[in-house]
Design a protein that fits this description.
By secondary structure, this protein is of the alpha/beta class. The chain has one domain: NAD(P)-binding Rossmann-like Domain (Rossmann fold). It has a seven-stranded parallel β-sheet with strand order 3-2-1-4-5-6-7, with helices on both faces. Helix 2 links the parallel strand 2 and strand 3. Helix 4 runs parallel beside helix 6. It is globular and about 55 Å long. The two termini are 33 Å apart. 49% of the residues are buried.
Amino acid sequence: MQSTQERPLAGTVALVAGATRGAGRGIAVQLGAAGATVYATGRTTREQRSEYDRPETIEETAELVTAAGGKGIAVQVDHLVPAQVAALVERIDAEQGRLDVLVNDVWGGEFLFEWDTPVWEHSLDDGLRLLRLAIDTHLVTSRYALPLLIRRPGGLVVEMTDGTADYNAGHYRINVYYDLAKVAPIRLARSWAHEVTPHGGTAVALTPGWLRSEIMLDRFGVTEQNWRDACARVPHFVISETPHFVGRAVAALAADPERARWTGASLSSGGLAQVYGFTDLDGSAPDAWRYLVEVQDPGKPADATGYR
């Protein structure tokens, strides 16, 4: 039997909204590895795929959570449909009577944005759909989940995004839709901090670095086992990380009795690794956002020495 130290989140109930793949799956699994019960939501099940048409399913995520040492519960939810989210939270309340961690990870925009395209040339329908998936889902989920989370002091809300507040403030991110989608969760984290702090809660924004998600690996034609082969074509991919790295960041936050010190803050997986001492699956601790500022953006040759 694992000790309390090995399972610091035993008895913790988490909802990872958007846990089908990528960062959401990594977060769900690492919360499970720390002993948590994790409700993993998404739209793709073994019987029905979303418009992504990807093979990953919420059932697989839940099984990975359980295999890691927690309890995974898959629930098909479209987080744009308030009734479905309300029913999800009612179920969590009925089955657990509590919610300790809420991770707003719904994204869904990988195939909807066009790189470096001005607003007058970008598909308006795709852009507005991206914003609904990236922002409205977080608002709907918080509307129904936060009342359960604040019922007990100590709740944690994590708004997932791409980029730190400092980095995004000084850089235009791809196009107007993507830029808004990735700045908004940082502001939402500050909003949730304002609303949950009086109830003993903590809210943060969190970004991974260059994520080796299932979609990214497929785009580069590699697997997790041979991912470094992609560096020949995309040299700065050398700083990339698995979804488990940011998952361990969330688990570390959830297990920290002093996590309130972070409330309202914009955090990164690499930055938190330096504080909490966790690593990625390969034992490294890539600090992607420092690498981007100091190596990639200035146009220096790709070299992750000292950054992982």
